[in-house]
Write a structure and sequence with these properties.
The protein is an alpha/beta fold and 214 residues long. The protein has 7 helices and 7 strands; from the N terminus they run H-H-E-H-E-H-E-E-H-E-H-H-E-E. The chain binds S-adenosylmethionine.
């Protein structure tokens, strides 16, 4: 197994513990503000197909199905995330026209999507630029991104963490926060025919919406 696949397995395993729970319905009003924004901006283009990369417990996808989006896809490195999302769809929606796959988005063969969501994943996956490049190849009209802001205190925290990781020779599967720059994400999109149509700052995070220019 190559280094990248070993690292992918570690990321999936690390996240498993967060998705070891009972399935619950997706009630939009109970979502955090950034997930609500993803749903709202994606629905605005009346999409036929949506992909959520690193969908976790699948709340955004289930909310979109409940609002009538016909074709939904999700991919996640965590086996528990995929199982939990499947159970939620079985119980509170339908698995018809729904594709939920365990694995790395970079390894998937997909057709085009009308919209793609990255909710708190770009900041932790080491090769986030490849994730964006691959998403752009799928030609979505809308791309919804939430990630941490590039704040000084985040960079200090990450510096401290990287020193600790070095001292302990700890095999760390994620990107450290100081590597991520929302500005780079914006640049990748604007260089490939997308316009940033919306941005909202939260305390530590931000949500950005990109629309494909005609
Ligand atoms: C912080 S969680 C966020 C989950 C969900 N989007 C949310 O906001 O609740 C990040 C998720 O992304 C998944 N992930 C990270 N890199 C991935 C990749 N390259 N392909 C697929 N899933 C990935 C992880 O397994 C994890 O479940």
């Amino acid at each position: 197994m190559g280094d990248r696949h070993k690292n992918d397995k570690k990321i999936g395993k690390t996240f498993n513990r967060f998705f070891n729970k009972e399935p619950k319905d997706a009630i939009l009003e109970n979502f955090d503000a950034s997930s609500q924004l993803h749903v709202e901006h994606i629905l605005a283009i009346k999409p036929n197909s949506v992909l959520d990369v690193g969908m976790g417990a699948g709340g955004i996808l289930l909310a979109l199905q409940k609002q009538g989006v016909p074709n939904l896809s999700g991919v996640d490195l965590s086996p528990n995330a995929v199982q939990l999302t499947k159970k939620r769809f079985e119980k509170f929606g339908t698995l018809e026209n729904t594709s939920l796959i365990e694995g790395n988005f970079l390894d998937m063969e997909y057709n085009n999507f009308d919209a793609i969501s990255f909710h708190h994943i770009l900041n932790l996956y080491p090769d986030y630029k490849s994730l964006i490049t691959k998403a752009i190849e799928l030609n979505p009209k809308v791309m919804a991104i939430s990630m941490p802001q590039n704040l000084f205190k985040n960079r200090i925290k990450a510096c401290f963490l990287s020193i600790l990781v070095k001292i302990l020779s700890f095999d760390f599967p994620f990107r450290l926060i100081h590597n991520h720059r929302p500005e780079d994400v914006v640049q990748l999109f604007t260089a490939t025919g997308y316009t940033q149509s919306f941005k909202q700052l939260f305390k530590k995070n931000l949500t950005m919406i990109f629309i494909k220019s005609d």
